[in-house]
Design the sequence.
C-alpha cells in the first residue's frame, strides 16, 4: 500500500538493480565517491505499477552507486517513500551514511516518477 505517491492504493513494486562496468568515471550518487572506468557499479531504476489504475511509472533518473551500497536501495514501496522523504528533507538527516544532499540535487529535489505509455 502506497502512502505518498499513490495514497491508499495497492501497488506492485519492481526494483531494477543491475550491475554494470563503468565506461567512464562517474560519481556515486550515494557516497559521492568516484567510480573509475572499468569498475563495477549499480544502476537502480524502479518500476511501480498502480494496481488500481493499471498505470505504470519508472524513476525518472537512474541512481548509480558503488556495489557495496546495494543494501541501502529501496526494495519495496514503503522503503522507497521513506528514502524519498529523506532525500526531500536531507537537512534533517545529517548523520546518514548516504550523501542525501547530493541525491537531493542530482534527483531534482525528490525521486520523480515518469508515467509509461501503454
Sequence:
Amino acid at each position: 500500500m502506497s502512502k505518498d505517491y499513490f495514497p491508499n492504493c495497492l501497488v506492485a513494486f519492481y526494483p531494477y538493480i543491475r550491475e554494470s562496468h563503468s565506461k567512464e568515471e562517474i560519481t556515486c550518487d550515494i557516497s559521492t565517491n568516484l567510480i573509475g572506468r572499468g569498475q563495477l557499479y549499480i544502476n537502480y531504476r524502479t518500476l511501480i505499477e498502480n494496481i488500481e489504475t493499471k498505470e505504470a511509472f519508472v524513476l525518472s533518473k537512474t541512481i548509480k552507486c558503488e556495489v557495496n551500497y546495494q543494501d541501502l536501495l529501496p526494495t519495496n514501496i514503503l522503503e522507497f517513500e521513506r528514502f524519498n522523504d529523506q532525500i526531500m528533507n536531507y537537512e534533517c538527516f545529517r548523520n546518514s551514511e548516504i550523501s542525501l544532499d547530493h541525491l537531493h540535487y542530482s534527483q531534482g529535489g525528490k525521486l520523480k516518477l515518469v508515467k509509461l505509455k501503454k
DSSP finds two helices and nine strands in the chain. The longest strand covers residues 17-21. The mean pLDDT is 93.
